[in-house]
Specification:
CATH topology of the domain at 479-591: GMP Synthetase, Chain A, domain 3
Domain Carrier: 632-707
Strand content: 15-25%
Largest sheet: 5 strands, antiparallel
InterPro entries: ACP-like_sf, AMP-bd_C, AMP-bd_C_sf, AMP-binding_CS, AMP-dep_synth/lig_dom, ANL_N_sf, FAAL/FAAC, PKS_PP-bd
Structural class: alpha/beta
Number of helices: 20
Helix content: 25-40%
Biased composition (Low complexity): 606-621
Number of strands: 27
GO molecular function, one term: adenylyltransferase activity
Shape: globular
CATH class of the domain at 479-591: Alpha Beta
Pfam families: AMP-binding (PF00501), AMP-dom_DIP2-like (PF23024), PP-binding (PF00550)
Length: 734
């Protein structure tokens, strides 16, 4: 990693200097460290783009000039970029211009794409004055019905990468002289970001964050993580909200250390590539949600990692979803031979409405976890409150503060707390920040609560305090945290029952720990019904997965009126969960994914075929060795892909015409499938191809076309299949 130059010690956090805004922070870095590396971006092909503070400021100033045309204080600006330096530059351009930046996942031109549905909702809610867009995404937008709310698109001309190993173009050309700062820089109380909460497609909420919120939370992260100028970091986290955006894009600039960014898709496809970056760069700080560590352990089972060195890793933060002791223990055990220390783990707790971090500390593996009650699952401490933040646990019914060890709702107060949501329809019942004329607040009236005469953020999370440390136990609100993403229970239930003639319109979605988090859907079925329980459950899983991205682990098909409701007819999800755990929820239980693989296996070299399948694939390939057509090669290739589908999704078998969603395949499993097939064939397999093609046969035919465009014809593909069938070792597992 470049950027170790220290011609000028950065002012700011280390020196005690405070900044009125992020714009002034960037200006200070550009003036004091113009040649030092701010960011790097690792591409899928291994090339690295680099941008210095000076160049970052110049390009951001160019963006700011375009955004600010027509007024000194432009309205919100929607950012539509893939991960990369183009996104980073556009973000800083908005911050310089004083325009609230609204990062969003780019939509895809696929029917029913969840990202596109969510994009339309965000667009209608925030009503941006401009859209800053990557050239590729601009072309995609032409194929998407965004509705009447789509404003003018700004797409600055691409330039030449600075320090890029392969001269790959980045988002903006370098100016000949340093651009002058905008005439009026934003101030402390100006809105910097509107970050939309993850997960929900039906009602996304834009959390309003001011420059003061961000700067305070960035300092808190710096203190809890122990960051300094010598920190080295790498991040695969999505750059569009909280952890990836604030923790890994903005905070490094405050402290003055460089960070290497990589695509989330590259991590999902090859989690160990993240660890190899940590090893190569001698990274000291990196992390992600709990599932990321699970993925690394799973994919490392049969990998040759003898050159992996994790001894430099001092801060392995773990947040955004429930922290599991088992995960940390297994990760530490697997990677201890490579220098990883368990004490590097840093469990933390936070949420978008608190900007990012609220509590956190390093894990002590020698201390036993806290068990709140006999028979309850042990809990991992998420540490004491971060600097400037106060944490209280209250009775959610009456707002009464609870004693040490008593479980209640977690309430927060401090300079990092938002004033509310963009376009909120009103202030909270207990008051607001008293900023008249601004179009945001608390839509539901339940975001804030009063404690001792002071306004607190009601997080909706449940937990308890023990000796000043926070233990998070679950959710009070009807929100399920699935692989670091929030999903509203209502979205899951609606996807399952809306327009579904096989079930009644009453359902309850919730999570339990067994000991890992398990997603459960209970749904009532009519007395007279068609199809078996397994068929009905399969349809429900497919509908939910396609609509929300959530993989149901357990489906409970209940008798009419078995799911509890209030007297006003509202489903009581917490009571349904309690009855399920007690075995008192009347219904047939079906498990989402059988653990037995029926003798087949998924292998690190990617064959994924049961023993009998190998022979049939080889025979099919050999029979058409002379001038094979696409159809002839598609048959053995789709057989291989079907075996990989089955192994990754942990089902006994998968037909070549069976849809991935039908066997519980989600985006995580799609990434694994892409990695395994790519490794087996030694040919590129984009994750997007797996997600866009529903069946093994469709994927096989798509890949043959994709490879042919790259000069790899059917004879070469067939030869690889034949070689694979003869060399794949037996009995290997993923």
């Amino acid at each position: 990693m470049t950027g170790s130059q220290r011609r000028h010690r950065p002012s700011g956090h280390q020196g005690g200097q405070t900044y009125a805004s992020l714009a002034r922070l960037l200006l200070d870095r550009a003036q004091g460290l113009p040649d030092s590396t701010a960011y790097e971006f690792l591409h899928s092909d291994g090339t690295v783009d680099t941008i210095s503070y000076g160049t970052l400021y110049e390009r951001a100033a160019e963006v700011a000039a375009q955004v600010a045309l027509g007024g000194d204080r432009p309205g919100p600006v929607l950012l539509l970029y893939p991960p990369g330096l183009g996104f980073v530059t556009a973000l800083w351009g908005c911050l310089l211009a004083g325009a609230p930046a609204v990062p969003a996942y780019p939509p895809l031109p696929r029917p029913g794409d969840r990202g596109t549905i969510r994009f339309r909702h965000i667009l209608a809610d925030v009503r941006p004055s401009h859209v800053l867009v990557d050239p590729f995404i601009r072309d995609v937008l032409a194929d998407i019905d965004a509705g009447p709310a789509l404003p003018s698109l700004l797409c600055p001309d691409p330039g030449t990468a600075v320090g890029g190993e392969a001269g790959r173009p980045t988002a903006f050309g370098r100016g000949q002289t340093i651009a002058a700062p905008p005439r009026v820089l934003p101030g402390t109380d100006d809105v910097a970001l509107v970050q939309y909460t993850s997960g929900s497609t039906s009602d996304p909420k834009g959390v309003v964050l001011r420059h003061s919120n961000l700067l305070h939370n960035m300092r808190a992260i710096t203190e809890v993580f122990g960051l300094n100028e010598d920190t080295r970091a790498v991040s695969w986290l999505p750059p569009y909200h909280d952890m990836g955006l604030i923790g890994c894009i903005l905070t490094p600039v405050l402290v003055g250390f460089p960070i290497r960014l990589m695509s989330p898709l590259d991590f999902l496809k090859s989690p160990l590539s993240w660890l190899r970056q940590i090893s190569t760069l001698q990274v000291t700080a990196a992390g992600g949600p709990n599932f990321a560590y699970d993925l690394c352990v799973r994919r490392a089972r049969n990998e040759d990692l003898q050159d992996l060195d994790l001894s430099s890793w001092k801060v392995a933060f773990n947040g955004a979803e429930p922290v599991q002791r088992r995960t940390m223990e297994e990760f530490a055990r697997r990677f201890a031979p490579h220098g990883f220390r368990p004490s590097a783990f840093l469990p933390c707790y936070g949420l978008a409405e608190a900007t990012l971090i609220a509590t956190g500390h390093h894990w002590d593996p020698t201390e036993p976890d806290d068990t709140p009650a006999p028979g309850a699952a042990p809990r991992v401490s998420c540490g004491p409150a971060a600097g400037g933040t106060s944490v209280a646990v209250v009775d959610p019914a009456d707002g009464r503060p609870l004693s040490d060890g008593e479980e209640g709702e977690i309430w927060l107060r401090g300079p990092s707390i938002t004033d509310g949501y963009w376009n909120g329809t009103g202030a909270s019942r207990t008051g607001s920040a008293d900023r008249p004329g601004e179009a945001f607040g608390d839509r539901s009236g339940e975001l804030f609560g009063d404690l001792d005469g002071l306004r607190h953020l009601r997080t909706g999370d449940l937990g308890y305090l023990r000796d000043g440390e926070l233990f998070v136990t679950g959710r009070r609100k009807d929100v399920l945290v699935h692989r670091g993403v929030n999903h509203h229970a209502h979205d899951i239930e609606s996807a399952a029952v809306r327009g579904n003639p096989h079930v009644r319109p009453t359902a309850a979605a919730f999570m339990v720990e067994d000991p890992e988090p398990v997603v459960v859907l209970a749904v009532e079925r009519p007395p007279a019904r068609a199809g078996t329980d397994e068929e009905t459950a399969r349809v429900l899983r497919t509908r939910v997965l396609e609509a929300t991205g959530v993989r149901l682990d357990v489906v409970v098909l209940c008798a009419p009126r078995a799911i509890p409701k209030t007297t006003s007819g509202k489903v009581q999800r917490t009571l349904a969960r309690d009855r399920f755990l007690a075995g008192e929820l009347d219904g047939a239980v079906t498990i989402g994914a059988p653990t037995g693989l029926g003798g087949g296996s998924v292998e690190p070299n990617g064959s994924g075929l049961a023993d009998g399948d190998r022979g049939s694939a080889a025979a099919s390939a050999s029979a058409s060795a002379s001038g094979p057509s696409v159809a002839e090669v598609a048959e053995p290739l789709s057989t291989l892909v079907a075996g990989v589908f089955a192994g990754v999704c942990e089902v006994p078998e998968c037909g070549t015409d069976q849809r991935l969603a039908d066997i519980g395949g989600d985006s995580i499993r799609a990434a694994e499938i892409a990695a395994i097939v790519e490794r087996a064939m030694d040919l590129p397999v984009p994750i997007e191809s797996v997600l866009a093609t529903a069946t093994p046969d469709a994927l096989a035919r798509h890949l043959l076309t994709h490879w042919a465009e790259q000069g790899v014809g059917t004879p070469s593909v067939l030869g690889r299949l034949e070689e694979l069938s003869m060399t794949a070792p037996e009995g290997t597992t993923l």
